[in-house]
Each structure stands twice: as C-alpha cells, then as structure tokens.
Amino acid sequence: MTRTPATLPLSSDVLEAVRDAVPLIQSLTNAVTVELVANTTLSLGATPAMVDIVGEAGPFASVASAVHINIGTPHAEQREAMLEAADAAVASGTPWVLDPVAVGMLPVRTALASELLKRRPTIIRGNASEIIALAGVGAGGRGVDSEDDVEDAEVAARELARITGGAVAVSGPVDLIVDTDRTVRIAGGSVLLTRITGGGCALGAVMAACVAVHPDPFEAAAAASDIYGQAAERAAAMAAGPGDFRSRLMDSLAGLSAAELRAQESAA
C-alpha cells in the first residue's frame, strides 16, 4: 500500500477508534448491494442500520453516528427519504457520505444528486466519471462504470470540495482524496473489486464509519481508503475468483487489526 504523502494521520488510529466506538451507520443504499454494505459495515466494526423510508429516515439520521447515501437504485420513496435524511443530518450535525452512482447519463438520479449536493455532504465518494458529472463538467460514464481516469477528475473533485467544504474521494487503481487545499493518493486494493457488485458502495459505508469517529473528513476518507484497500489486497491474495473474494473481503476486514497497521506504519 502506497500512501502519498506519508504525513496522514495513522489509519491504525482510525480503525481502532471505529472498533472502540462501534458507530451506528445509517445506510440508504441501493437494492443490489444492501447486504454487502451492511456486512462490510459489520466486518469493519461498526453497526449498520438500513433505515430508508420516509418518516423514519430523518429522525434516525438525527441519532446516527453517520449517514451513508448511495443513489444506485433510487425509487420514489427512497429519493424522498434520502433528502429527508440529508436535511436531518445537516440540522443535527451528523456527518454524511454521498455516493452519486451513475450520475450524468441518467436524469432522475442526476437531479437527485444535485439536490443532495446542496446539502453539502461531508464526504463525496465516486468514480472519476461520477465526480466529473456531479461537478457539471462531464456527461458521466457507462452506467456505474467510469470512462475517465482518476487523475482526470482532480479539478472536478476540488470544485466539489469547494462547494461542500468537505472531502471528495475518487476511486480507482490509485484513489485520489482531496479537500480545498490537501491531496493524497492511495494505491492498493484489487482489480477483483471491479468484478463484484458493490465494491465502491461498500467503501462509502467504510468512509461513513471512519468520519463518524474522526472529525476531519479528508483524513477520515484517506484512512478509509487505506483500510479498505489493505483488506482487499489480503482477500485477493487468497481468493480463487470473484465469489470467493467477496466473502474473503469481509473476513479480511474483520481480521485486520490496528496493531498490524501500526506495525506497518512504524516500518514505513
């Protein structure tokens, strides 16, 4: 795992804080990946709550440790619940993560993402095409697949960070995390993350758990990328294929210890 610069707060400390605090993470996520997102949250050491209906989403966001909103399959009631949850998170000071899945090419979710952006998410996480489209400087990718390179999205990511005052994470072979004046690139993970449904969705939940326990969105997003990437690398080294990788990813996250990370950080 390559961390540039190496001056970031230690991922080990953030992971340890998640395990100690067991934050309650509300996920309003897509129907295709809801089980993976919930189990990833559990494997990390946090508690998932998939509360995504109108009348419950807002009140729950007010008491959750963080909120994770993923617009992958935004049916009508869930769209209303997402706006309700985002409004409640802002009002109560609850940090929240936006994953703008497939924005740009699809009109309903693009309009929803624009409305959610006005609520100034604490962290935005997406692939390069999604980040470019959300910033209004591109048309988006092919569905959930990016047609742009991570580095192509840096200017758009910085603009989104300016709008929100938070952090923006662009996922790819080398993740790019920015805020208004800081940048970090974190290499790692595995190509097998692109061979399962929900690899990016699950990372959004990890970022929500990390920002629930760490007050700096940029640092929390970077730590989440590092932790998730290291778990994916370990899972891929043992996996026979995508299906095996999916289950091993959960095991690797659960087995990853702050002590192991701290030893690596000390040696770096």
Describe the structure.
- This protein is an alpha/beta fold.
- The chain has one domain: UDP-N-acetylmuramoyl-L-alanine:D-glutamate ligase (3-Layer(aba) Sandwich), CATH 3.40.1190.20.
- Helix content is 51%, strand content 15%.
- The protein has eleven helices and nine strands.
- Strands 1-9-8-7-6-5-4-2-3 form a nine-stranded mixed β-sheet, with helices on both faces.
- Strand 8 and strand 9 form a beta hairpin.
- Helix 2 runs parallel beside helix 10.
- The chain starts with a strand and ends with a helix.
- The N terminus is likely disordered.
CATH homology-level superfamily = Ribokinase
Helix/strand-derived category reads: alpha/beta
Shape: globular
Using the coordinates shown, work out and report the CATH topology.
Answer: UDP-N-acetylmuramoyl-L-alanine:D-glutamate ligase
- Beta-strand portion reads 5-15%
